[in-house]
Amino acid sequence: MSLRAGADGDVASAGLDPNDLRAERERYSAGMQEASTKLFSEWLDGLGLQRSL
Question: Per the record, where are the segments of Basic and acidic residues compositional bias (predicted)?
């Protein structure tokens, strides 16, 4: 996934560096995906519903 070409200017105008954002995405993406999957699974388990995953 990448920032769309026109968004770089919007990001820069907000005082952010698109390259920094890309680096942070690379650093945190896998951990965030794992954490969000765990959170969602725990939430579903708390509902007491049967799942077929």
Answer: 19-28
